[in-house]
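If your schedule permits, I should be very grateful for your opinion on a structural question. I would ask you to consider whether the tokens describe a fold that such a sequence might reasonably adopt. Thank you for your consideration; the sequence and its tokens are set out here.
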Amino acid sequence: MKSMFLVTVFMVIFSIRAGAAEYAIDTDHSTVGFKIRHLFSWVNGTYDTFEGSFVYEPEVPDNWSVSAKIDASSINTNVAPRDKHLRSADFFDVEKYPSITFKSTEVTDVAGDTAKLHGILSLHGVEKQVVLDLEIHGVGEDPWGNVKSGFTATTTVNRTDFGLNWNETLESGKLLVGEEVKITIDVEGIQQGE
């Protein structure tokens, strides 16, 4: 009986793992975006070079995971002098810290097509736990036979928590650049072979 129980447990675990599909991020159909206050408006930007993968199996969130890496020097706000400043030691110091990484640790609060993705964000030499609000878009086959899956992830971080402290105080006492950064990541993945 004991051996039969162990065999059953093994088969259940194996079947759960076998059902989980790994997806490579399709960078042609994905975007890593952010926005931050500048005085009385918002500056929007993206990171144009990134890579990663995720494991997703509907209805089994314990199997979900994400790992991604961003090239910090690929920051793009469509203003070349500003992007140069952002790459400098005043901000991201990309020569010293060339990559931004995220690795998930758990998924909670799964409800329909939403969930919370917890993980470690490594930025500017600092690692912090962050929580991403997930909107899950599902799984399907494209016209060329590729199985695709996608989601939108949003969160807000305080840049000073990661040592990004540069700012200027105006005569009014208002800061030139906001501290909170709103992040929106739209990801489409291509399922990988067995």
User: Anything to note?
Assistant: The CA atoms of residues 47 and 75 lie 4 Å apart.
